[in-house]
Structures are given as C-alpha cells and as structure tokens.
Amino acid sequence: MVKETIPATPAVRFLKQNGVPFVPCPYKYEEKGGTARAARELGVDEYAVVKTLVMEDDGKNPLIILMHGNRQVSTKALARHLGVRAVQPCEPGTAQRHTGYLVGGTSPFGTKKTLPLYVEETILELPAIFINGGKRGFLVRISPSDLVRLLSPKPVRAAY
Hints:
8 strands, 5 helices, 160 residues, alpha/beta, YbaK protein
C-alpha cells in the first residue's frame, strides 16, 4: 500500500502553522473537470466543494470570492455589494501573479498577496467544506469556522 503524501503547498503550510485540523482529499485532476469532477471523485455534494475565484473590479483591483461548486457568481450582485460598476474574472496569468497558484489549484490560504476575501454567506452554514489545498487535484476538508477565524472573509449574497 502506498501512503498518500500531503503536498507541501503554501496553503498546507499556512494551515499547519495555524494549527488548523484538516483532512487531505486528493483526487484525479481533469482539465475543465471543475468542482463536479472533484465532488464525484470524492463522493461529496458539489454544494460543499468551494471554488476560489480571483476577480477584479472595474479599477483592476483584485479580490477573491469563495463560491459553492454548483453555483455561479452574479458579478452584478457582487459589484453592487462592493459599490463598483463592474466585477469580472481575472485572466489566468493575472490570477496566478496575485495568488501564486495555478488556476485550478487556487487556494485562499497562503496567497502571494493578501487580497480582499468574500464568501457566499451560505457556505458558512455548512458543517464542513472542501476547498483547494493549493494544488490541482488536492482539496482539504475543513470547518467553515476555521476559514472565518483565519481569513475573516466578508459574507456576501452573490450566488445564482
């Protein structure tokens, strides 16, 4: 039997340094497979798989929003909440420069730059979430309360 190793990503180091209990959840990554693939591989509800999305406002100011895997971000609702005219996803290269992570492996933990962080408020009601651990094909199961304690994300209503 081969022992599964935990990748030494900035996210994993951040969680360990802050004493956060987490369960590593590796799965076979598939390009364009998204959260549906991860949920299917791990046998969990896609609603509990949380996407880490890097966006920018109309002034090119970057931000992160955490969203349920089976929901989309209403950029209009998010822009209204932020008090800006528009919000759009960052280009993959721009997102990587801000976070230090490849798209598909972006974690809100251990990012290269500290970015404003928002979370769809219903995520905080879940007993556990599956969120990227800083590498494609690697999620970690944590408590939403640990997410709040460590990163203090601002709750928003932007899902559809």
